[in-house]
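### Sample
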Amino acid sequence: MESTVDNPFFARLWTVMSAHETEEIRRLRRENLAGLSGRVLEVGAGTGTNFEFYPDTVTEVVAVEPEVRLAEHAIEAAAAAPVPVTVRTETVEHFMTGSEPLDAPGGAGNFDAVVCSLVLCSVADPRDVVRQLFSVLRPGGELRYLEHIASAGGRARLQRIADATIWPRLFGNCHTHRHTERDIADAGFTVASARREWTLPRWLPLPVAEFAIGRAVRPA
């Protein structure tokens, strides 16, 4: 299993896209992080777009970003963040199975929250990753997610076609028709709040217009 990702085309594309996010996306990012506290694991940090939105009740963010070029931008963003952020250039799978014990200070365990923003669509095995995220949360800890999810009807057919053809190749292995919320519940989380938001007009024939935003809890 590779510990990093080298995708120069997607890195260039995402760097431009993340620098020009709509106010709607920024609002959802801010909402997804509101009220967090303690030690947070952020999965798939990208260019560090979330960092500016962390509340000062967060004591530490460990941010994992496997694409080496995106991680360089994330490290720059971490330096300007309002809370302490450490960027790890590795896949979440490698981070979870690393040499540090799960309960070691600064290791993979004992997180108060996990943040996933537009990342579970791109991991190789989302169900396995969500189960691992469950394991590194303390009892009562939260998973905050803002993700592309499977739509229904005609858009679902569009998503399946996109996923089977060029979309994952262009967009860093992004798969648009994933049942992420079902995977979260199946991993043992209790979904405390969840809703769906359209970030683009419904009439646009794009597979990523609908987002899921929610808060799931590891039972105490």
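The domain at 8-218 is CATH 3.40.50.150 (Rossmann fold). This sample (Phosphatidylethanolamine N-methyltransferase) is used throughout the tutorial notebook.
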